[in-house]
Amino acid sequence: KAKKQKHFASIYTNNISNMGGALNKLLMPQEESLTKNWLGFGPAEDKSLLLIGHVKLPVADLDTSKQFFVNVLGAEETSTPSGSNQDDVAYRAACGTSFVLTKAADDPVAAWPGQFYVWASNLQKMSEAAHALEKEKQTEVVLEELCLKMETKIDVLVLRDPSSNNIFVVNQAPKGYTRLLKMGGLEAKDQNLLAVMDVQCQVDAGQSAGISQFYRKALNASGKRAEDCCKVDFAFKDSTRQTLTFKEPEATTDAQTEAQGEATAEETQNQTKARALSICFYMPTEDSFKEALKTCKDLGLNISNEDDKEFVFRDAALAESSEFSPIVEHVIRSPLHGDCPVSVGAETK
């Protein structure tokens, strides 16, 4: 267990300290925004998709998982809609405009190959709930609390879901963010967890170029490159910005290499279990959804669950970038899909 915790620590420590400059500016609230009314994100990146709709995560203990997402993170439990890819969902937690879908799984459970970066309205409340769950379950939930400006004020929380080992890095949302949500036509519900800002995936060294090319070709997404990483951008009006980031490993010390090597060997053994993971994207327009479906078929991707508002693929490999084959299932949806959490208007048709 101690070796696993070291691996968790190395993941989030490296990822926080080594985020690219542009990505860091997007994700981290500006210092003055925590005390002054925030003016927003600014223009969306070119070729942004609409939203990260959901991630589906297998968990070993549904009750503990629900305690973590609802009681600790402050997500809102919502009903699970009917439809494809939903039959095995135990419960659904709303995280702003995105959702976490959980499903029961045998132990050991494959964790998401990276971390989730989220915004919340009250980190102190979240910290107290996390420590309470930690005490109740007698297992580590709070990996770190960072007080960057004042010793008594938490600026960053790093939490572990004890039912799945998924890691969540939590920042205080900027002042005025809920107002911006309302201006965008989004209901700012009374919940602590306000937004999923970034879903980060760790990949092997040298894979960023192929991954960027894959998303650019298959979905006409941004696939923006930076040093040792690439990202796919998402944007809804002026109120929501998200990223899917693929991060290559940084240079490490011998001790870090040993700890990560042990964890990597275990992750390789559990690669089959990682196939239970899933992520959902909403395309920006109905036309872009139709074009993505056609392009993915032309590229020879194995398409399943296809209807006029959704299709699914996994294990995709392009001839030009055959080193990248996403194990995680991808659910691609039209903005007119019945489960889309935002109203995009007639311009999407």
Give an account of the 3D structure.
- The chain has 8 helices and 16 strands.
- The protein has helices at 2-17, 21-27, 62-72, 123-137, 177-183, 208-219, 254-269, 286-298, and strands at residues 51-59, 76-78, 91-95, 98-104, 114-120, 142-146, 156-160, 167-172, 193-202, 224-226, 229-236, 240-247, 278-282, 303-307, 310-313, 329-333.
- α1 crosses α7 (254-269) and α3 packs antiparallel against α4.
- The protein is globular.
- The relative contact order is 0.18.
Span between termini: 51 Å
The largest pleated sheet is described as: 8 strands, mixed
Helix content: 25-40%
Query: What's the number of extended β-strand segments?
Result: 16
Rg result: 19 Å
Strand content: 25-35%
**Order of strands in the sheet with the most strands?**
2-3-4-1-13-16-15-14
Task: Write a concise keyword list for the protein shown above.
globular, 349 residues, 27% strand, alpha+beta
Task: Give a summary of the structure in a few sentences.
With 349 residues, the protein is of the alpha+beta class. Helices cover 28% and strands 27% of the residues.
Give the helix/strand layout.
Blueprint: H1 2-17, H2 21-27, E1 51-59, H3 62-72, E2 76-78, E3 91-95, E4 98-104, E5 114-120, H4 123-137, E6 142-146, E7 156-160, E8 167-172, H5 177-183, E9 193-202, H6 208-219, E10 224-226, E11 229-236, E12 240-247, H7 254-269, E13 278-282, H8 286-298, E14 303-307, E15 310-313, E16 329-333
Parallel strand pairs: 1-4, 5-8, 9-12, 13-16
Antiparallel strand pairs: 1-13, 2-3, 3-4, 5-9, 6-7, 7-8, 10-11, 11-12, 14-15, 15-16
Helix pairs in contact: 1-7, 3-4
